Amino acid sequence: MSDYMPEEVVTRILARVPAKPLLRFRCVSKSWKSLISSSDFISLHTRQAFLSEPAVPDDRVLVRHYSKPQRTELYSVHHDNEDFTVASEAKIDFPFRRLAQFYFRIVGFSNGLLCLSDDIFGYTNVIMLWNPLIRRKITLPLPRAIYKNLGPFMFVLGFGYDLKSNDFKVVRIAYDQSDSGYNLPPIVEVFALSAGNWREIEVNLPQNWIIEHFWTQAYVNGKVHWVAYRLNVEEYRTENLIMAFDLSNEVFEELLLPDALVVECPINLCTSVCKDSIAVLHYDKHVETGCCTIWLMQTYGDVKSWSKMYTVDFEGGLGRILSFRKDGTILLTARDGDLYSYDPNPRIQEIKYIGILGTKDSFFVDRYTESLALLIDGEQVLEGLPNVAESDSSGDENEGEDDRVEANELWKQSMMVEFLKALLEQTTMMQDPFV
Questions:
Q1: Which of 35, 98, 108, 246 has the fewest CB atoms nearer than 10 Å to its CB?
Q2: Mean pLDDT for all residues in the chain
């Protein structure tokens, strides 16, 4: 088909095709393989996937948990429906089981890339970006702010996709420690995937602290958000707020919290994403939690739009809220490590067992997305799995040449049919697919 279509048109069509079939399309011809594997096309496809809504809504979610019997973290993909059914690509092989003491901290999941950090059970300075679809990863170089250079310190991370530069970025905020506590301002370093190194930011540094160890990030509107706190000298108290880092402009911003949360213990607050905006989870206490109140910024950026949604009672053994589902229910863990779905509707308040057992604090849930990121930048991590970065061979070496040619042609035809089906799915809701 590409012989009868301009290359520009083929490129625009392929840029709308999901990442998984694109990996197979590279085997259709040398020109397609060269195109799909090029840095320009990967950049175009990554941006297109981030901006566009698929013709068929994707309801898949990624779940990570730690299995004590298997002594490793497990990844799976599920449909966000009533039964939380397993998707066809349910099992994601995890190739780093020997690198972390128990399991990695998942800093974030953005546009098909996971950011992993080995800092939960002691910091080792290991930070990786991993694309589970194509099984490729990149290990970030050492930043400047480490124990060797600073002595005792603490740090937090943020991760997301910078739409303006079409790049993935990691921000690292390190506080060196003295006898009086953690010093301000922190040392801020940014890693951009396209550059492959850390850059230190020396302007507009935040005068706030972020909670050590128990921090979480929320990536919304191109910015990473954390719960932070600062010292109010006049009233001699600490005050909580949301600290945000704009990945495009690489500047810090502050968002005020509702009055009810300003003077709460900051260790009991964490950020989350709900309805494409920022939510703050307020636990009554961090250990043996009795309840959690959810606050939502109804309109992103408008601090007057903070609204108290509801309070979840944890007296029945529930332990931690993970994510908000599309039907209004929430996913949460029990103290014994079971995964549950909870309907907070006052007329329902139903708890449903999902059927996944892990450890309470090891669970991570986010919307599942796929991309070609790291296809040419990353290092292959296989552990016995077929190498998706290379073309699959087909046919038996003992078969005749004619049989191999015929099988290859039939296979290419099936790939073309799949290409046309993917094109049809992507253009069903578009008037002009080439715009």
A1: 98
A2: 85
